[in-house]
Design brief:
73 residues, alpha+beta, Arc Repressor Mutant, subunit A, 3-stranded antiparallel β-sheet, 4 helices
Length: 73
């Protein structure tokens, strides 16, 4: 959740900035980002040798809508 919040606050950010700012190991950040990518929660954009991560707000909106419908019934 900390990584998601950090990406949200920064809009688009690379893994180096994430692990340095959150004071976590690079391998931990990379593993967590892979899990988030596989779940389509974050999107990637490669610029040169850097991969920038951003939140997939469209997916989160769909999940929120489905959840709201489910719990409203």
């Amino acid at each position: 959740m900390q990584i998601i919040s950090f990406i949200h606050a920064n809009k688009s950010i690379n893994v180096n900035t994430i692990y340095e700012a959150l004071n976590i190991e690079q391998s931990v950040a990379s593993l967590q980002l892979k899990i988030l990518r596989d779940a389509n929660i974050v999107l990637t954009n490669r610029t040169g040798k850097f991969v920038f991560y951003s939140i997939n707000y469209d997916l989160l909106e769909q999940v929120a809508t489905i959840t709201q419908k489910y719990f409203s019934s």
